[in-house]
Specification:
Six copies of one chain form a homohexamer. The first copy, chain A, is α/β, with parallel strands linked by helices. Chain A has twelve helices and 14 strands. In chain A, strands 1, 4, 5, 8, 9, 10, 11, 12, 13 and 14 form a ten-stranded mixed sheet that branches. In chain A, β11 and β12 form a beta hairpin. In chain A, 57% of the residues are buried. The model of chain A is unreliable at 332-338 (pLDDT under 50). Chains in contact: A-B, A-C, A-E, A-F, B-C, B-D, B-F, C-D, C-E, D-E, D-F, E-F. The B-C interface holds B 19-22, 24-25, 90, 95-103, 105, 171, 173, 244-248, 275-276 and C 72, 247, 249, 268-273, 308-309, 311-315, 319, 324, 327-328, 331-338. β3 (28-34) of chain D pairs antiparallel with β3 of chain F, so a sheet runs across the interface.
Chain lengths: 338, 338, 338, 338, 338, 338
């Protein structure tokens, strides 16, 4: 039976230069609509759940286009408010080999989402429609009003009996330099409301200010994650370690900490077509496994394969079905399916 | 001998849905960079002058792309400041027949141009490099700082011995409803500094608050324009009347008021491919004729043909050479040139 | 308050050669998903209603793509069955001037819709969710099973208290030559179930076999439509007369026969970008007016303008909002909206 | 029964800016391969004949591409020599309304065709394979070697019992100013070998130096064409008068002079998509009618409709079938064929 | 001297989503026309032979487009019948890395080829025009009529003195599960008529039901292929082993069994752009070597390089010349040729 | 402080088939304008210098397009003469894996640049505006007039006190077979005028005819380059060794010989997107380092990274800023910058 899931967050317009040309070279852009909330909710929709996004979009042709594109991604859009004037945008110039991809933002602070009135949303009503809600640290970085909305919504979900998941997703560029202490308070508010958290040892150290004597990632993780779970009463914590290899492939290893026990996925190595949104695919896979009641081994293998496949899909938003992901878990290298 | 000309104004990124699709239907945009200042300066560059634009662009890949595209249009870009964070943008959905084109703006008030510091520009230095400067009423609608910069620049040009032209270009949407009185003061500041003004009787009545007992456009024009010239000591005033015909062709008739005498161009009727920027083409034609010292009849015929051709060019910016325009003046209907 | 509306019919994949090239010249196709049911339901969705489509699509990537695209058009897709193997397709080569557009079909009879089991649909359940249902004569031309499903669905809607609309849409190519008599029985089954019918005098004469001594379309219409309404107990009948003019514009005049009274719309003349689906736009406008309880004059003006705008939209499916259509009713010729 | 037809002439690469952009604006070109010989031969292939082109192409990837594209157009390519180094090219910027299309050539004189050795072709062998051969005045303008080849080929065709057609196609730009007298000798060589000639009164006056006292085109034609036929013993002469109308439509009227009698086609007025190659479509229609033994009225109506349709086809080369043309003869304004 | 070669088989329309997008994401398709018969015949045409395809296409714009595109590929199309209503199609979504490519078929059983009348072809006439004929196991999987046509054609070729080649190409998806026994009879009919067969040990075991005690591919091959050759009196058998490597390159090793002796090619490892049709390239290389009378070592090296190059060509159909292939045999890694 | 730099050389139009299709497959080309002079000058413009190109372009739409595109690349175009009739062009079919890229030229000898009058340029005036001038061996291969212009320009630069750099760039295809001796004289003329030369041991051996007993590239380089520097009094010599690896990556190692001392860069290994113009990027990096007075280690590291990045940029012309290159020097493998 499908679950009813909601994500809260900004809907962004992605404007991408085709191929690997620069903005100075091209005269064409491909656009789509995404955001971590959109990505996780749409990924869960493709896994068979009924997914809502709670957000605000302007009541103009750009907002209309966003609605249409989100519906195409499988999202229910009736909880989107139409208000304010602008949609957040980012321009993407895809890198190649030694040249990294480059992202240029428009003014997100002026977006409909980031200027929505504190009491603009009816979180109680939204909470009554869903089984689980997903939040993200990028949203937490926006501004005080948005932070207050986010905490209020998570609170309402808990009260209504729903589950809360939270992806730390700390982006230094959004918080500004030296603002870890400022961010920490807000992260802690969300951790205290969350049933499930996505993070790794770096979040524990940098954002939450925890300390360790270990030097290796793995050892740091093994020490710190149980402490986080304990301190904030979190049932489930999951995350990944990513390595970028010399041949431009990436290697990804996921972990799941649940009931006091770590489960590590097999490290997967694969070619990368579109990097953005692949963390959201991992999160959606973990959430799906939890909702289905799978054992940790199955959940982490599924989430890792979901993330691997998301690297092969154009655009930010994961689009794989459970059947696609199970096939990818079963095979290593694929020829044509016909 | 080419003249050195400068325009002051915002550089906008135009993001156009290809063909006549809507933003909800397409996933592709074509982008270019324009603005009335860009359009007039680039048009004059194609007529053989050395054209500068004074403006501010962000120091990011969008600003770099704007610089590159403006250089391609023939503009000298060394007087563009790199500062601030954003570039103004507008999305264009082209209409067809009974369905009008639709423009959606991003937040222009946050653009590098509209947030530039009051004393950010060295107008004295810029004025020393040029023979003539062009300004536009769209810029005047932005904010107090920009208005102050605009007046300061026009003043500096006059002091340095250059000529000042000003296109009234009153856009109600930018000023807000009921703000004619507020706008008038600012328009008057510019009119007093201008040697040449682009306007018609509607500007005189609505923006300047002049009154007339005539009901016909032509009679209103004949009565009011000489009064404007007298009141603000303007040597030359020019403008157009546009009619949109039932078969989607447009008819355009230009006039030139100079030395107390009206000269009217032949009404031209033509098919329309891209409407935006065609008023700027007319202005550039008049400025060119004035710089060349042509008789009014030649100037108005040239400017009218320049505007007609601009309707046949993709994008906001007129790209016709003097030879192209003279050919269009000579012939009515064209077969292939080979 | 929005109504809940359903349409029944085949979902077709439209594969169009870009521009006006031929299939022998190009190597690219643009695809979308449509069908008269899709078009009417999506048009009503853009007018603010909650619209379902009842149909069958294969459970393969083409079916998935159809679902995604239909969602983007604003349709609720949960009443679509996934069964069978194929989707109906048609290839469109757009004409230009003296060269007509050309449509080539794949084998529709093998499509999921046309091979669905007689009892495959749960029409009672579907009927319980909606206020009105729309059917079309193209569906009636498919095969005996589909015809039986169509009558069963219309019947179920009536029983559940919903309204039934039916667009005659007689296509000789689908029925085959000399099959008017065969078609008539099936048309009569639907007419007897319909509250609202779309047709004109040609349907009355050719499909229903009625006779008239008049030679002019208008006189034939005035004589025959009341007879049809009487014979089959139809409350509302509406339709259009189309003229193709020498300059490639079309002229469209709509009529509405209701409560024994004819109301004729103003004839509208306009340029044509995409002809397909414009009859569906007219039907959706009439249905909308009826649901809103508008007076016939407003309804026919609205439906005519809706159809006119549909000629300016790429693709088969009308996408105009009520606000777009009201603007088109108010103005004749449009300049840029900015 | 199909006839075997050959055309002799240069194969050109056409490089067209998409849409109506200028070469300074775009960064994309669409390419195809054409030439009057290609156009007439391909048009006759689509009318059911077996068509060869005799020409020379370089033995490089551009020559390979030309061969592949010509085969797609329906031409037999085994009589094309592979020799020399270059292919002739022209760049096309499509005009719009008041802005004419613009053609820029590369150096044709260096092309494989124009540098082929005098005795490079085996005209006797080619003549033995065909029933009719078509030549064109553009080829005659190239250089002495090409002119000698052309006369030699026409001579060989006559000896082998085939028919010779010749389209005067005088292009002042290729011959240079003041070279009518020089051109005349070469035109006369071809006229003496031709069974059928395409021309109108302008060719008689300007190229052949004939004089008339009439001022109207029609009267000049009626006087001069019979004189041309008599002087050079030509059985059949045909041609068109073209008018470009204010609304950008063209009007075309064809004539056929045969057995001492003029037959005029109905003037056709139509919208124009691609102007180049439409004279070749007319010529192919006349040749087809002659080969079929049709009466002049049918032939001229068919050729006129063929030319009209060629204006609606992208690219230089007519692609209509006899069935397409007969439909266009029967109807004036077309809706969708489905 | 070129040979005259024919292939028999279905002509398919390939509709490919550009790049690596999914059908749910894109709105554009690129189309081409292929099929194993087309591929082998076109490959041999590019190697200098005169190649025919015997097949059936509908007499509609899709059939016309197929003919034009096949001519461009170098095929003689006069032996193609125009009959029936539909063309077989398949949609291709290209995979990336861990995500495999995906093929979705339309209903091939309804295609013109698969519904052609048993006696629709004049195989005796076709056989009289050619030196060799190629058949494929995909065709054998279609239906009884097609199987009967295939055997009849191969028989006619043998009677006329031509050579018969047959590529086993067993596709489980087309035959259905558990149908090896059913397929075997039909395969045996073709093997008995074939001079040359393409297969490997898997065909011998699965399709022909042969048994082996060996576990390694190579040993199985060495044991079984000579048995096949003996049992069915086949002069030449050839085939490949393919390995997909972790870095997405493929390794291909070919073998040729002739006159009782095995010759193995060097294993080639290479990047893959378009996988489909590369087996046909191998077959065409072997056929070419046999027709040229090359020694087995040269033939297998040539066929392997031909297949390797086919992986670098967009579309199903190999397009390399003998010179291209010889260059690829000589070099391992290529820089620009200029 | 920026330097003023000029390059002398032909401006070529590059016409590239999109993706990896062949000219026989596609119908679209992407065009840009380049040439070694353009590439080096534009690269230096992106590094902050004021860059001119001295060349000749036709006064037609292709010449206009070249000017506009060169301005977009950052070049000052006022020293370009408009004369002659044609622009040199080359067609590029991009290879993939085992299939090399393929370049086909039009007739460069007829280009405006290669037919410019011996005294057409005012080299003294140009020399007075600049600090350094760059020349290339490709230009030297054109014809006697161009060679004389080149030497005259280099001479004028030296007289005016500017620095001369020369890239040997020996292209056997342009000089013809067996013409090393002929080329040597011309190379020596340039070497004698050059302050800085780009070459490696192969140029010393093949073009300059020097001999060595060493077999290894490195040893040959270490022996011969100092001899070249001594013989022709060259202050600085630099160059690269390129290796193409089995996985299609390239490895590049640069060297700089200055003040009698060799400095070698770290070998860099990277994926290749667009190979053309990457040698020009290396040259521009060395020139920049020299102008800035950097130590050899910094210069060679910078130039190597500049060349590596140029392999990741679409088109011939390097577009990286100093900041881009410094980032590439600092990091090995890049994730998204956001």
């Amino acid at each position: 039976m499908p679950n009813r899931i909601v994500a809260f967050g900004e809907i962004m317009m992605r404007l991408q230069v085709p191929g690997v040309e620069l903005l100075t070279q091209s005269n064409t852009l491909q656009y789509s609509f995404s955001g971590t909330g959109v990505n996780v909710a749409a990924a869960l929709s493709h896994l068979g759940h009924h997914s809502y996004i709670v957000s605000t979009l302007p009541d103009n042709p750009l907002g209309d286009a966003a609605i249409a594109h989100l519906r195409k991604l499988g999202l229910a859009t009736e909880l989107i408010r139409r208000d304010g004037q602008y949609i957040g945008m980012y321009f993407l110039e895809s890198g190649f080999g030694a040249r990294p991809s480059r992202v240029t933002y428009t003014n997100r602070q002026q977006s409909s989402f980031n200027t929505a009135a504190l009491n603009g949303y009816d979180f109680a009503a939204a909470s009554s429609k869903i089984d689980a809600a997903h939040f993200c640290g990028i949203t937490l970085a926006m501004n005080d009003t948005v932070r207050a909305q986010m905490v209020a919504f998570a609170h309402a979900v808990r009260i209504a009996g729903g589950k809360v998941s939270f992806d730390c997703n700390y982006r230094p560029g959004l918080w500004g330099e030296g603002s870890h202490a400022f961010a920490r308070t807000h992260y802690e508010s969300m951790l205290e409301l969350a049933d499930m958290v996505f993070m790794n040892e770096k979040d524990a150290m940098l954002t939450l200010g925890m300390q360790t004597n270990y030097a290796q990632c793995r050892e740091q993780l093994l020490e710190l994650i149980p402490k986080v779970a304990l301190k904030y009463s979190i049932q489930t914590i999951a995350g990944t370690h990513r390595t970028i290899n010399k041949d431009n492939t990436h290697t990804l290893q996921g972990y799941l900490f649940k009931d006091g026990r770590f489960t590590f996925g097999e490290p997967l190595t694969f070619a990368v077509h579109d990097r953005i949104g692949t963390g959201d695919a991992f999160a959606s896979g973990i959430i799906h496994g939890q909702l289905k009641g799978w054992v940790p081994e199955e959940t982490i293998a599924f989430a890792s394969a979901a993330s691997m496949l998301a690297h092969t899909i154009t655009g930010d938003t994961p689009l794989s079905s459970e059947s696609d992901i199970r096939k990818a878990m079963a095979t290593s290298l694929g020829d044509i399916e016909r």
